[in-house]
Amino acid sequence: MDEAVIAVALTLVAASATVAVATRDPVRQALVLAVLGVVLAVLFTVLQAPDVALSQLAVGSALTPLLLLLTVRKVRRRRRRGEAER
Predict the structure, then answer these.
(1) Positive or negative, the Cα torsion across 72, 73, 78, 82?
(2) What is the C-alpha separation between 28 and 17, in angstroms, rounded?
(3) What is the tens place of the pLDDT at every residue in 50-72?
(4) What does the alpha-carbon distance between residue 9 and residue 17 come to, in Å, rounded to a whole number?
């Protein structure tokens, strides 16, 4: 039973990582990265590493996507401002 749960978690990690790499839009990439962080946290929990899972949940699925979204927003705002000045 344990091997089946680990196999399912690994399959979900592989699928979500593939989607994250294949996505072209930066905003969607950040959202898929958040999903990947949650799936990795589930995998770490299944592998009985709850401390690593909590760290992954905080950093991988919350902070990193948030920073990416804020960066994309700032870059797009600067680009619009630069185009308006021309």
Answers:
(1) positive
(2) 13
(3) 999 999 999 999 999 999 999 99
(4) 12
Mapping DSSP onto H, E and C, the string for the chain reads CHHHHHHHHHHHHHHHHHHHHHCCCHHHHHHHHHHHHHHHHHHHHHCCCHHHHHHHHHHHHHHHHHHHHHHHHHHHHHHHHHHHHC
Q: Measured between alpha carbons, how far is 23 from 85 in angstroms, rounded to an integer?
A: 32
Please give the structure tokens belonging to residue 65. 């996507």
How would residue 86 be classed by pLDDT, with cut points 50, 70 and 90? low
pLDDT per residue over 70-85, tens digit each?
Answer: 999 999 988 888 777 7
